[in-house]
# Entry
Amino acid sequence: MVGPEGLAEFKKSGLFTGSGNHGLRVGSLKIVLSQATGQLRPSQTDLNQMVMEADRAGFQVAVHAIERNAVEAAVVALENTSRLPRRAKLRHRIEHCSECPPDLRERLSRLRAVIVSQPPFIYYSGERYLAQVAPEVQKWLYPFKSLMDCGVIVAGSSDSPVVPNNPLMGIYAAVTGGR
# Structure
């Protein structure tokens, strides 16, 4: 994946998502949303602009969004882009999509976005989630089945080395909720 700061250089070189060969291909443009300061960074306006520019350049976008506000900002940016005439059928992604209540799941289902989430987090960080995440938010953490029931494509990854890359533990956590 390329970061937003590299998009202009990739465009200038004529590269876009899928460019390359069997040994190496250009992937998505990854945009990391952060709320570390209490405010969304980049702002909604800047995010909308980045996603629009990437889409027009033929780049699939992978928006890193964890908290509900960040997931909603990603959904808004993808909704804006979905109104554009399509040169290519890009399947934009949201990485993590950790807090996803029903209203956002419904909107995601209309977008054809792909969620790339990390089931092992449930297993390895479950106790921390129970201790640090408000009970009313816990029921919307990593709602894999609910997303799939809405027609959203969900892909699993480990996010290694954040957690061990044992695929069986990821499958176990996705199926059982880590119990």
User: Anything to note?
Assistant: The longest strand covers residues 61-65. The two ends are 33 Å apart (CA to CA).
